[in-house]
Amino acid sequence: MKKIAGTVWWNWMLIVVGLLASASAYRLFLVPCDIAAGGFTGVGQLVSHITGGAVSVGIVPVILNVPLFAVTVRSLGWRVGARSFVAMLALSFFIDWLPIPAATDDMLLASVFGGLLGGLGFGLILRGGASTGGSDLLGKLIHEKFPYIRVGALVCLIDGLVILGSLFIFDTKNALYALISVGIMNYMLDFALEGPDSARAYFIVTNHSEEIARQLLSEIERGVTGLYAKGMYSGMDKTMLLCVVNRMESVRLRQIVHSVDKNAFVIATNVHEALGEGFKELG
């Protein structure tokens, strides 16, 4: 029970810190410099500019998100849906009312640091088990109706339309800086979700699989999996090895394979995420 309560508090702490970070990105950098970095908040920036500030930036995402949450609350789950709805309202409120002035009028600095801070904030909100709705939620909703359309493509399309709108409503320069900010924000969001650790998967085709596996297990202390393989040219049955290591262990793995079998065939591929013993916890 204590563990569950601790997890809930930790999730809410991540959400609150993420909300403050992402709202600060807009208050400090993106809104003052008219950089509409995609999403429903970007739509809010465009609408606010068109109306001369009569409609605030934060109110537009609320208007657009409320019907989305009403439609998707079942698929999100009541708990996640409630957290996400609160996070969405809080983000809109902070964007309009957080008492901090603009940090700079330099558009390059604003696009870079706005993207960094915004991506970090949205990543922390997602790690806390919530969402602020927007283009991601709309993309998922459309994907459910049309499964052949990928969510990522829909999000890019929506963000692209917002940036295209800023081209006409603001300026060409603003749109280009918005494109930079979106790229940095997406990169930083992934970094906040997955962390700095990177892993590599090695597929090793060799006639000395037992010896290589033994050394990998004893020296690197990583699990090794033997996969049945057959050389279609030679017709010989082989055991192909699969081993996932972190970046620092890659060099030692190659040294071991080379010392045992100089003719081994090795395939290395970047791993998007590694969960389990020796890497991040599955939970």
TrEMBL record:
Record field: transmembrane: 12-30, 50-73, 85-102, 108-126, 147-169
Origin superkingdom: Bacteria
Coiled-coil residue windows: none
Organism: Candidatus Alectryocaccomicrobium excrementavium
Membrane topology: Multi-pass membrane protein
Pfam families recorded: DUF2179 (PF10035), YitT_membrane (PF02588)
Membrane keyword on record: yes
Cellular component annotations (GO), alphabetically ordered: plasma membrane
Record keywords: Cell membrane, Membrane, Transmembrane, Transmembrane helix
Location of this chain's protein in the cell: Cell membrane
Domain DUF2179 span(s) in chain numbering: 222-276
InterPro entries: DUF2179, N-reg_PII/ATP_PRibTrfase_C, UPF0750_membrane, YitT
Protein name: YitT family protein
